[in-house]
Amino acid sequence: MPLNPLLPLLGIRLPLIQAPMAGVSSPEMAAAVSNAGALGAIAVGAGDAAAARAMIRAVRARTTGPFAVNLFCHAPAAADPAREAAWIERFRPLFAAHGAEPPARLREIYRSFVVDDAMLAMLLEERPAVVSFHFGLPPAAAIAALKAAGIVLLATATNLAEARTIAAAGIDAVVAQGWEAGGHRGTFDPDAPDEMLGTLSLVRLITAAIDVPVIAAGGIMDGRGIAAALALGASAAQLGTAFIAADESLADAGYRAALATSGGARTTMTRMVSGRPARILPNRFAALNGSCEDVAIPAYPIAYDLGKALHAAARARGEHGYGAHWAGQGAPLVRAKPAADLVRMLAEELALVLAEGATA
Amino acid sequence: MPLNPLLPLLGIRLPLIQAPMAGVSSPEMAAAVSNAGALGAIAVGAGDAAAARAMIRAVRARTTGPFAVNLFCHAPAAADPAREAAWIERFRPLFAAHGAEPPARLREIYRSFVVDDAMLAMLLEERPAVVSFHFGLPPAAAIAALKAAGIVLLATATNLAEARTIAAAGIDAVVAQGWEAGGHRGTFDPDAPDEMLGTLSLVRLITAAIDVPVIAAGGIMDGRGIAAALALGASAAQLGTAFIAADESLADAGYRAALATSGGARTTMTRMVSGRPARILPNRFAALNGSCEDVAIPAYPIAYDLGKALHAAARARGEHGYGAHWAGQGAPLVRAKPAADLVRMLAEELALVLAEGATA
């Protein structure tokens, strides 16, 4: 294999990145992955700068290795009180069925990094090895400041145009997130038509077109998937769903049960949980997909405020079917292991597949 | 690489199959591909047994190598005169805009192989090396007869359940057709929910679950794509879109221009052209997608009768935008070459990628 410049840039030995997953990945997971020779990651977009700093320090308490800190770069949500009120009313019966009231109003629960000066200042102080962006890019000045601080930058693309934008902005590597991927699609503009590019096509389209290193994401669950990503010209693979059942995962019992019992079959892409397209396991929330076409979905992350409240209300009555049970199309291949064991197994599988290729 | 039992079974040297593409692949293409060491294919489902026999003989006149003969195994269409009449009226203004009348009624233009005894009898006489099925499987008796005649059988799956059905029916190999693939999805039941499994996920889910050899299809355009398929555990890759611009392709000038000028970006899945989901280049027909939700689409291939008539009417006035310009998500990577040159180039690229893996 030709020299892979991404690995020394990230300071890792294995071409493997643990996907940041807000609510699932933990400092313990990130540290275990980094200690095993891959790149661990935490998602800090669901909290403020102080919470993010605490998470970064929690990882650092467990590893001296590099890890990635992931930020949400969505366009700040435009509130639309009428739309939000209609959405609340749409769900009132479901709340009532669980003995609860819906929220009186919905809030923008996540502050976008594009307008979060305190978060930027914290990152420039803490200087994690890697910062990654989802849903878009921060302003050029923020990118320049992070780069000047020696931080390696990654950003997600779901099509070639986004990849070109990322490369042109001076980002160090593109995370090519295919249609298979679990959780939120990183699409810059969720209202634009979605090309729904599968991981295989997307990765090859991007590696063929741009010179920036590419990290393949979406549907990759084992060494065979990582080897496929490398064959396509990617410099590494990013795995999220593969880590949901890890010991260090924050996934609750309902989420783990959904992953195990459904076998992960029939994941669907839905915008209803959060206001942005995201791939989810088959559960009660996923089953609502398409049944709300008469009511416009509030913007991300305003819709997510209701989604989380509904899950909390149902869970209080023992119903786990309204959780944000994100997972990719490879979910049936998930393995419940300590994260370090999973990284070792993935590395062994990858080595085997690459050795097979040598004698083809 | 471990012994690949599929290649001797098919009688080929390269782990590469040219996809059968009705209206695009030709006996000349199939023969050129087979002579170059891969498996060429012709699609005979659009004609009767006599036409299919003539095509088989046309290939045999040009190669002594093995090739595949593809059959459509859709459920025979249930006519619905009211639905068809509404569909005709829906398109009347578009026909009028091109100075034409729509057909007075729509016919089931393709006879399904599941009810085509003459086609089966012809195949048992001609005994092509390989027969492949799309849209489902023929009756068990037909499968048994073809196998008894020494014909190797392939069938398309778009999800794990279909792959299991194919394996259980005694078919020799599964063509795992991912979401990226151009043209008609091989889905057995087009009215069932579609998992939209990307090629990477689908191939790995199937290779991990069943013992029958798997042929990866969808978005594969070059040696990197073929290497990725093999890494995922597939025994070969099937490429269709990669051959549309080949010299031997029957694609007309409008189709070739659409492929070249659009760069193939933004293909979409539409059921409007033929009555079954199929991936198409962005053209005027694709742009109608979603604008007919008030009118039910007739069954496949009844709807296709209108689609072909609309294309013919528009083309007579110089408008090529209503062609069935099928293509996969990898379309921007297409290369216009003689088919034999393309096969040689793919083999060289594959060897290079496999050699890279050896030193990783």
Q: Can you describe what's shown?
A:
The structure is a homodimer of 360-residue chains. By secondary structure, chain A is α/β, with parallel strands linked by helices. Chain A has a domain at 6-74 and 110-255 and 334-358: Alpha-Beta Barrel (TIM Barrel). Helix content of chain A is 39%, strand content 12%. Chain A is built from 13 helices and eleven strands. Chain A has helices at residues 6-10, 27-35, 49-60, 81-97, 117-126, 140-148, 160-168, 199-209, 223-231, 253-261, 284-287, 302-316, 339-358, and strands at 16-18, 40-43, 67-72, 130-134, 152-157, 173-177, 183-184, 214-217, 236-239, 268-270, 278-280. In chain A, α3 packs parallel to α5 (117-126) and α4 packs parallel to α12 (302-316). The mean pLDDT of chain A is 95. At the A-B interface, α8, α9 and α13 of A face α8, α9 and α13 of B.
From the structure above, extract its key features.
3-stranded antiparallel β-sheet, 360 residues, homodimer, TIM Barrel, 11 strands, 39% helix, 8-stranded parallel β-sheet
SSE order and pairing:
The structure is a homodimer of 360-residue chains.
Chain A: H1 6-10, E1 16-18, H2 27-35, E2 40-43, H3 49-60, E3 67-72, H4 81-97, H5 117-126, E4 130-134, H6 140-148, E5 152-157, H7 160-168, E6 173-177, E7 183-184, H8 199-209, E8 214-217, H9 223-231, E9 236-239, H10 253-261, E10 268-270, E11 278-280, H11 284-287, H12 302-316, H13 339-358
Parallel strand pairs in A: 1-9, 2-3, 3-4, 4-5, 5-6, 6-8, 8-9
Antiparallel strand pairs in A: 7-11, 10-11
